[in-house]
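Look over both lines before class:
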Amino acid sequence: MIGIRRAEPGDAEALVELGGEVGAEEGAWLLTTAEWRSIADERRYLRAVRRHADAAVYVAEADGRIVARLSLARDVHPASAHVADLGLMVAVSHRRRGVGRAMLEQAVAWAESAGIRKLELHVFPWNEPALALYTSFGFEREGLRKGHYLRHGVPVDAILMAFQIDHPS
C-alpha cells in the first residue's frame, strides 16, 4: 500500500538517499549523479518549505520506506504566479506501479488548493518512461529547451511540458 504525505524534516536522510539512487541509474534521469544537497541542507530546505504556501514537498511511502518525491513551487514573478514548477522522482523498485500517477494527482490537488492554473516540468528527451507517464496524465509538450541544463558540464536539452488546471469560475 502506498501512502502520500507532506515531507517532514525527518525525511531528509531518506530523500537524499533516494536522490542518490535515482541519480546513479544508467538512464541519467537526474541532472547529476552527485548528492544535490547534504542531509543537513535537505532538512533545512524541508523546514523552510513547510513555512511557505507557495511550495510543497510530498513523499510516497511503501512498507515504511520513502519511494518517491514530489516537489512543487509557485513561480516567483507576479505575471506568472499562476504557474508552478514540478519535480518528480520514483525509486526504480516502484515504477510502473501507479506511484508516479498518484504523485501527479497530489500535485494537481495542491495546485487547485494554491490557486495554480498551470503545472510545468522539464524532462530529458531520452527519458521515455517519464514522457509516457506525463503524456498519459495529460501533460502537453510546450517546447524544447536546447542546452538548457549542464549535466556534468555538458549542455543537454530539456522538453518543457505543462498541465492546465481547470478551476471553477
Q: What stands out?
A: The chain is about 30% helix and 35% strand.
